[in-house]
Task: structure prediction
Amino acid sequence: MKELSRFLYGGDYNPEQWPESTWAKDIEVFEKADINSASINIFSWALLEPEENKYDFSKLDKIVEELSEHNFEIVMATSTAAMPAWMFKKYPDLARVDYQGRRHKFGQRHNFCPSSSNYQRLAKNLVEKIAKRYHDNSHIAVWHVNNEYGGNCYCEKCQEEFRKWLKNRYKTLDNLNKAWNNNVWSHTIYNWDEIVVPNELGDAWGEEGTKTIVAGLSIDYLRFQSEKLQNLFKMEKSIIKKYDPDASVTTNFHSLPNKMIDYQKWAKDQDIISYDSYPAYNAPKYLPAFLYDLMRSLKHQPFMLMESTPSQVNWQAYSPLKRPSEMEATEFQAVAHGANTVQFFQLKQAIGGSEKYHGAVISHSQKTDTRAFREVADLGKKLKKVGPKILPTNNHAQVALLFDWSNFWSYDFVDGISQDFNYMSEVLDYYRQFYERNIPVDVIGVDDDFSQYNLVAAPVLYMVKSGLNEKINNYVNHGGKFITTFMSGMVNESDNIYIGGYPGALKDVTGIWVEESDAVVPGQEITADFDGNELECGLICDLIHPQSARVLAKYSSEFYADTPAVTVNDYGHGKAWYIGSKFKHDSLTKIMDKILEECKVSGLANSNLEITCREDQDDKKYYFILNMSNEIKELPNKFLNYQDLITEKFPNKKVRPWQVLILNK
Ligand code: GLA
Ligand code: ZN
Result:
């Protein structure tokens, strides 16, 4: 696979929206900002194929030629994410049927049915043409398949394919009925063709992905849809590889993260992970950091920051401008966590369509004497300087945080005992603990290797598929440290309860059993006592019976006062902590201080700056010091004798708002 030959700086360029006469000037402006890359051909299907089997590559040829002449790294997309109008008219079946059961018409994008043979054929034909035509252009750095896959289809064809998929998974209806526990509410299936897709016309209700009668069915459907879309990706990729076996092929992942698609399952098919990042103005800074760590951990390799905004987006409720220097810090934050590209949406601001108010490198003013452009150009200069040093480095972590798509799906489907369950927010509570201590973290899946980590944290590991409890037991038995919480170990991969007391599959390793769980209602305050400190908690309070575990904290309110809230169990050569409630941040900090001390895990520095480290093959370390705030902060003394790669000077004690340092010796 072709590696990135330099650090890419650029983004989505949509020259087909502009007269050809303007392209040369655009490129000149990009070069002024040290932009060396452009992602093209993302949404051009209607221009490339004005009618079936009639292709017109004249515009794309010219764009490719101009960018190649200027030695740009081209990120070549396949244009299959937005279908032309004629296609919907000719083949209505290629449009998705939504959660409400409605077949879509022409409009929007990302709305194809993954089972439609017409969509598959048309996409295949287009990609064949594109790959054949451009595969030997050495300026193509990466192939960008489709765009932001996602969205479920509930059409008849998908239903038919789903039945086949289930037959393959369960072999017999008896197995399927058992897996879905179908004797509840008379759901027993006697014939494969009785199976109905779980949308609002079937077993689901409420917002998509939140409410269902048979979670086993709904989760299987999500697994199936994710796999169907993945097959489309693989189909396009295999065509590109046929023409260029060395090509590097990706598709851009997105959202917080995307609930429709199991990125961990997709990762093995990506040559390089790419990610679109648009944190809201009021999102905590640890949220993008978590997502970058997740993206890097998908392949344990650097990733592409495929999209981000140079100034503001248009589609969030409020999109304030990034403050002076904030853009640089937000882009470097991705690099600090493993990005080997900085790419924007968009390079040139559109004059029409719903995204015309989305920020861009070339704005509507078309002037370069603007704050946003100066900042883009300034960042370009810096990346040009530091890029070659950063490109061959990677991040390393001794701590892993589990994030698992089946859990993401199943935890949010839980009906009861509190409506406030949210997988992301529980996982983020723990990520924040590591983030604030500057402890490097890999955000891994349940199939990753645990043995390389000192500590594995698995908050709300609700669904434990078969084999996973043995894997955890084995890891702890061999000296691993493990943290889990309330609502863990509850169900198998089909969402059926492990009987014998919660946390079912994790009872042995935690050395406890939970008899009942209380839902903490709004306004209610539950306290716990931990080494003489009063802790506050909420959401859920587990009523715990320690077996072999020792009690670390006890509730100090409610009828369960004086019973355990936090425990630790010695298991083989390792230890497993069980945290029976959602502790408020400051309270959890106290618990984690103690756990981390016992695990001998410490951060890169004790500081309210964000600090990460990337290392090259020779163990040379680059410390990224990020002031992700509007206030001046202090650099820890231990870094004062390092040099900043950006300025080539020793750093000051005072770190300016949004300042970024890359320190090395
Ligand atoms: C997504 C898409 C882009 C564009 C941006 C706007 O990430 O991939 O085409 O719509 O959002 O933020
Ligand atoms: Zn469909």
